[in-house]
Amino acid sequence: MESEIKCFTSDHVSTEEQSICDKPQDEINSNLDMSLSQAESHKLPIDKTLVSEFKQMKLEKEAQKNWDLFYKRNTTNFFKDRHWTTREFEELKSCRQFESQRLVLLEAGCGVGNCIFPLLEEDRNIFIYACDFSQRAVDFVKQHPLYCPERCKAFRCDLTQDDLRGEVPPASVDVVTLIFVLSAIHPEKMVRSLENIFRVLKPGGCVLFRDYGLNDHAMQRFKAANKLGQNFYVRQDGTRSFFFSKELLAELFEGRGFRSVANDYVFRETVNKKEGLCVQRVFLQSKFTKTHQTETSP
Ligand SMILES: C[S@@+](CC[C@H](N)C(=O)[O-])C[C@H]1O[C@@H](n2cnc3c(N)ncnc32)[C@H](O)[C@@H]1O
């Protein structure tokens, strides 16, 4: 399978994020040890050298450009449709107060829409705002045959600096999905992105989060030369990836007025039968709500 080969030859291992979720139960091992192996812990002292400050600033300045080039190279072919979203996040079905309620969702960092189109197909009574800072990605979303303005609004937005309220009414969204996006944002700017999301979320609304967990296989594969900071790395194509501990994630959200409802590691083994390889994946899957008491900040 082309996608599986890609998993092991490219620096971007994100294709695996989908494939693992579709694996049969016997290929999934839920009891993986989070601790590093002896060989891996020997590597740690070498990893203290970080990418130079100059290069780090350049990467930050060019973050949008690098994602845009990613979509220029891969068009819509890199990520597979994420049909597992409703299965994994039961809330998408159950968070309606009454059956006929039209659910308003924001897919923050939507890429080319792999999350939103399966949802639009599955749920006729849903309206989706979808934003990404790559204009190319947003254009792909708008060109999709299932895109229609009555049910979906895609727009360009840098979550770290553009106010979402320019496109989405304040406190109007029931559910925000943040799927493998926060990891792509510089740790110092994550808080700003959460504040941005907070303002458009209804009181009682929730954020459904899934992203890379600490010590994930992708993290182990990075070389010392790719290290930007603690648990933060750069891929060959200039896109970056952070690996979350559940403690840090809870601190990030709770510090911005969210309440943790669920926050746990998901352990998976990805098996590539053709290559005879088996790798251990660690993801973090979480749910945070905006409490009814909290006010939207100015
Ligand atoms: C791994 S992709 C995930 C895409 C999508 N959520 C999915 O599940 O298929 C990460 C996306 O985050 C977007 N992104 C990264 N930083 C962003 C930012 N500051 N503001 C908005 N989007 C951002 C990238 O352009 C990319 O499309």
TrEMBL record:
InterPro entries cross-referenced by the UniProt entry: Methyltransf_12 (IPR013217), METTL2/6/8-like (IPR026113), SAM-dependent_MTases_sf (IPR029063)
Any one Gene Ontology cellular component term annotated for this protein: nucleus
Keyword annotations from UniProtKB, A to Z: Methyltransferase, S-adenosyl-L-methionine, Transferase, tRNA processing
SUPFAM superfamilies, A to Z: S-adenosyl-L-methionine-dependent methyltransferases
EC id: 2.1.1.-
GO terms, biological process: tRNA methylation
Top-rank taxon: Eukaryota
Database matches in Pfam families: Methyltransf_12
Coiled coil: none
Gene3D superfamilies according to UniProt: Vaccinia Virus protein VP39
GO molecular function: tRNA (cytidine-3-)-methyltransferase activity
Keyword S-adenosyl-L-methionine: yes
Cited PANTHER family: METHYLTRANSFERASE-RELATED, TRNA N(3)-METHYLCYTIDINE METHYLTRANSFERASE METTL6
Protein family per UniProt: Belongs to the methyltransferase superfamily. METL family.
Described function: S-adenosyl-L-methionine-dependent methyltransferase.
Name of the protein described by the UniProt record: tRNA N(3)-cytidine methyltransferase
Lineage of the species this protein comes from: Eukaryota, Metazoa, Chordata, Craniata, Vertebrata
Gene name as annotated: mettl6
